Structure formats: C-alpha cells, structure tokens
Amino acid sequence: MISDYHNVTSAPTTVGYDSTWIIVSVVLAIVGGIAAYIVFVSKENNGEYSGFLASLHDFLNFKKFYVKDILKTLYIVTTIFITLSSFSYISSSITLFFMTLILGNIVARISYEIILMTITIVDNVTEINQKMSKNTDNTKNINKPKKKIVKEESEEK
Predict the structure, then answer these.
(1) Is CB count within 10 Å lower at the N or C end of the chain?
(2) Alpha carbon distance 82, 104 (integer Å)
(3) DSSP characters for 57-91?
(4) Within 13 A of 154's CA, how many CA atoms are on the CB side?
C-alpha cells in the first residue's frame, strides 16, 4: 500500500506574521484607548455630545449598566434550553424528565434571582450613597457657624 502522507507539504510557518500582528494590535489598542479616553471619558466633555455620541459617552463612562438586561435574556435562553433538553430524557426515564423539567428550571430561577438581587443591592447602596452625599453637602451649608451679634453693654443699661 502506498502512502500519500509523504507528499503532503506543511503550511509555511506564520509565526513571524502572527507575532507582528499581535504587536501591531497592542500598539493600536493603546493608542485607541488613550484617544477614546481623551475624547469620551474625560470630565471636560460632559454634556458636549448629542445623539449617538452622547450614548457612546454614557456607555464608556458606565452611566447605564447593561448586566441586568443581559442576565434577563440569558435566563430566558437557559429556561428554554432546560425545558427542551429535558424532553431528551422522556424515552429513557420519565422521572429524570420531570426532575430536569421542574427542578432544573427552579434551580435556574433561584440562581438568576440571587445574582439579580446582588446587583439590585449594589444599585440601591449606590443610590443611597449619592443621596447621602447630597444631604451632607446641604447640611454643611446649614451647620455653618453664624456670626454672633454682640450687643454692647451700653445699650443694655
């Protein structure tokens, strides 16, 4: 039997090309990151943008968090997957089918609720801190010592 493996030529090594591209990528990422920081993230540019650039400014400054929306979508995908995959057990074990169908969805729900409650607690604490800092700014103005008016003794006599 004749083997054709000895005629197969290996692809030329592209290690030099790959490492060059990685170095170029790192340099471009650093330059792009610095430029994006200067243009969008610096505090000097707050309120200067409108439309898409304003939403990009808010996105890069983390003014809105998207984790809740992503987790809700992942929860829906997970429950659909658990429900559909549980039907693969129906022919082998009806008990395993019902356990996967019911308990799998319950475990998924509890897991996602714990994650979302943690995120909600963080949001609430952040909101409380913001309100407390506003209140302390207001109380500093209220609690400033007032100049006492000293009455002269001659007026009292």
Answers:
(1) N
(2) 6
(3) HHHHTTSS--HHHHHHHHHHHHHHHHHHHHGGGTT
(4) 0
Q: Could you tell me the two tokens for 31?
A: 């330059």
62: left (phi over 0), alpha (psi -120 to 50) or beta: left
Torsion 49-53-59-64 (CA) sign: positive
Rounded-to-integer distance, Cα 113 and Cα 107, Å: 10
**Phi and psi dihedrals of 152, rounded to 5?**
-75, 150
- Cβ-contact 64, 58 below 8 angstroms: yes
Nearest partner of 116 among 76, 78, 67, judged by Cα: 67
Looking at residue 16, its pLDDT comes to: 62
Model pTM greater than 0.85?
A: no
Per-domain residue ranges for the chain?
22-63, 65-136
